[in-house]
Structures are given as C-alpha cells and as structure tokens.
Amino acid sequence: MPDHRSLGGAAQRSRRFQSAIRKETFAPEETKQLRRFSAWEATELILRVNAKTFSNKIRAENDMPDGEVEGGSSGMRWFTLEELNQIRNNWKERGKYKLRPSRPTGKRALRVAVANFKGGAGKSATALHFAHAAALDGYRVLVVDFDPQATITHAMGLVDVPEERTVWGVIAQDLILETKRMNLERKLRGDTGPEISLPVGIEGAIGDLEAPDGFISQTCWPTIDAVGSCANAAFVEFATAEYRMANRAWSFFAAVDRFLARAADDKYDFIIFDCPPAIGYQSLNAVFAADILYVPTGPGYWEYDSTTSFMSQLSEALGEIAESYAHDKKVGSQLPKNFEAVKVVLTRFEPANELHVAMQEALGKVFGDWMAEHPIELTRAVEQTGRFLRSIYEMDYRLMTRETWKRARRSFDAAYCEFKATAMGVWDKLPEPRARTTEGTAA
Ligand SMILES: Nc1ncnc2c1ncn2[C@@H]1O[C@H](COP(=O)(O)OP(=O)(O)OP(=O)(O)O)[C@@H](O)[C@H]1O
Ligand SMILES: [Mg+2]
C-alpha cells in the first residue's frame, strides 16, 4: 500500500520530468527579458501623446532616446521601458499631456492584496496585470508573492529564490525583532523573569538582520521589484504555528505590515500582494497589511460558493484577531482591521455567455458598490501562455492580429483604470512613511 515513501518516490520521478520540461521552456541560465514597446504603443496606449509631436521630439531633442528599429516593423521605432520613462521625465511642455503618473505627495505606497481561497480564481493574473499596467503608467511597483506556488515570482522572471528570502523569512525576521523588543522592554521595566526565547536555529537561518532590503529582488521590469517565493516556503504555515508557541504575545499577522514600513513604503507607489489559495498565516499577513482588498472570482456557480465562504472565513479570522489583540499596545490601534476599499472582480468573463452575465448581475446585487464595474474577460492569449503566466502587456502584438491583442488589452486596461480610480479615491487618507532610524528600522 502506498505510504509517505511511495509519495516521495513519485515526487522524485516527477521532479526529473519537471527539470526536463523546465530546460525546454526556461533555461535557468537564461534571464527573462522585457520586450521593447513600439512608437505606436508609446503614443496611443502608454504616453497618450500626439504621434507627430512624439516623432518630432525624438528626432530633434538631444535628451530624448531614439529607440531602435526592429526587424519586421517597417521602420517603426521601439523603446525600452527605461527609455519611455526617460521620455516622460524629459518632455518639456508637460502641461498639455499628463505624462507623469499622479499620486498624492508625502504619502506611503498604496498596498493591495489580491486574495481568494478559490484556486485558479485569477488572483495571480489580476495581480500581474495590475503590476505591469501600473509600471507602464510610470509607477514604481513592489510585488510580494505570498504563494509558494510562486506563479508571480516566475512570471516576473525570478527563479530559485532562497526560502529564507521569501515571506517566510520576513515572518521569521519579524519574530526575532519583536521578541528582542519585548525582552528589552521587560528588562527596562525591571522584570527579572526569564526572557522569551526564540526557536532554535532561527537567527542563523535568516542571516543579516540589518538588511531588510535583502528580501527584495529586481525583476525583468525596471520599475517592478519583488519579494519572491519558492516551493520550500510552503512550510511557513507550520513554522508560524511553532513561532506563535514560542512567543504568544507576538502579533504574527502584522509581520509583513511592519516589514513594509521598515523597508519599502517610501520607495514604491503600489505594493501588490499575490495571495495563495488558502486562508492561513500568509494570507492574514497580506490582508492585514493591505489598504485595498481585491477579490477575483471566476464566473461559475461553484466559484461564487467559494468566494462566499472566503468572505465568511476571512471575516471570522479578522474578527478573532481584533478581539484577541485589541489591547496590544503596538497593533491595537490598527484593530479592527479597516480596508480603505474592497472590490470583487469577475475574471475569465465571456460577455456572450449567458451564465456569466447572470452571475455578474447576481454578484452586483450581493456586493453592491464593492462589485467592480469592469470584469476581466477571458483572453486566449493569456490562457495559453503555458508554464509561466505572461501578461498581455508583455506579449508582442505582432504575434497575433492587432485586433485580438487590442481587445484583450482593452479588458485589462479597463480593470486597471478602475483599480487606479479606486486607489486615487483613498490614497490621500494613508499615513506618511515612517521616518527610519540609522539601523533601518522604523522609528
Ligand atoms: N483573463 C484570463 N483569460 C484567460 N485565462 C486566464 C485569465 N485569468 C486567468 N487565466 C488563466 O487561468 C489560470 C488560473 O489563473 P491564475 O493563476 O491567475 O489563478 P490563481 O487564482 O492565481 O490560481 P491559484 O489559486 O493556483 O494561485 C491560469 O492558467 C491563467 O492563465
Ligand atoms: Mg495564483
């Protein structure tokens, strides 16, 4: 009869096959590259400027990049994202065009958790498209992958992220910092009782505590960074349960919130969390750190059932946290957790499918103004991206008919514009980034 050893054997055989596929589809020595964007995309979709004015500027002005002519594009010039951002910055008469993206001054980055415990609901596709659309819009983005399936990590071109540099590392580091803080406070109070001790080996596993930025990697998009994940990070759920036993006063759900305040809040415009298909310690950290909760849901009845259960379980979990930690002097003021906005967005939507339209209407009645007006449509090009999820923004429109590509892009653009409008409606209410001390920790 099969036991754990049989499962181990099957996993070993599967890994051999997996590495053969991986070699064919994504050689480890190969790094993912972001494509260039054509002058047509730049003027019509990205910068939204007059095409003639654009080409005159590119030709005449010294501080404007020229781009490159690519084969098969009949003289059209193509630009990297860095070059597009250079054009944004160096364009003189900015009054006429809004080339730089708007954001309230002095506010910290806006954080968005894309979450639902239904597997395959479209969380990673939504998070990836929002991240790419925001970067093309000129924003600086940090993506945090809370899912050991590492879908968005791989999609951003990161491979072989060490487990201690994932959200597991962030959570373990937080336990160490918080425990040290609590022990020091006890000592200063004159408490002579035994110190709270840390789980054995945890400090050695995490490494340099002075460098919270060490969890953040650059990606193939010049203005998107990521906290990546990997399959081994799956044990974070077991580990966090053990850490809670070691230090019962530790507010485990606020670890990522504290990490972002220390390391990242003043460096980015948007911080986007891709959550795993489960409510656990990772999802709770993502949701607690988020200003906006985005819940993607597929258009089927069973997906509707799952979304309902997700809301109910999340409500219970956040309610329990609010009750248990209300008197904690560090996090109590942030409880109960308030979101600036919640949005439910239908994904893989087909406008000609009557069932999908009926689901859209039903969800609209249930969720009211939480329901996103623009569903994300099913897009064959995204569906068929294969082993590594790719966004429509990364795909070269020359690989399909221009109309197919534009139709797909229109749907993701509309969803992104709605997301951005939601963000703009709440950003002003956020606190300013906290000042940092020389040790790199929040004051
Ligand atoms: N709008 C879309 N059009 C076509 N295919 C899509 C779309 N959104 C998602 N998909 C496809 O559906 C599958 C599941 O999507 P995705 O990985 O985004 O879901 P998920 O909720 O992140 O899944 P998991 O729960 O496993 O993390 C993927 O293969 C993706 O390519
Ligand atoms: Mg996913």
Named once each, the bound ligands are: adenosine-5'-triphosphate, magnesium ion
CATH class of the largest domain: Alpha Beta
Q: What portion of residues is helical?
A: 40-55%
| Number of helical segments with 4 or more residues | 15
Parts with pLDDT < 50 across at least 5 consecutive residues? 436-443
- Cα-based radius of gyration, to the nearest Å: 23 Å
Which structural class best describes the helix and strand composition?
alpha/beta
**CATH topology category name of the largest domain:** Rossmann fold
3D architecture notes:
The chain contains 15 helices and 10 strands. The protein is of the alpha/beta class. The chain folds into 2 domains: 37-90; 110-429, Rossmann fold. It has a 7-stranded mixed β-sheet with strand order 6-7-5-8-4-9-10, sandwiched between helices. Strands 1-3-2 form a 3-stranded antiparallel β-sheet. Helix 12 (301-325) links the parallel strand 9 and strand 10. Helix 7 (167-188) runs parallel beside helix 9 (236-246) and helix 7 crosses helix 10 (255-263). The longest helix is centred in the C-terminal third of the chain and has 25 residues, at 301-325. The radius of gyration is 23 Å and the shape is globular. Residues 119-125, 147, 149, 151, 277, 347-348, 376, 378-379, 382-383, 385, 389 line the site of adenosine-5'-triphosphate.
Essential attributes:
443 residues, alpha/beta, Rossmann fold, 2 domains, seven-stranded mixed β-sheet, three-stranded antiparallel β-sheet, disordered C terminus, binds adenosine-5'-triphosphate, binds magnesium ion
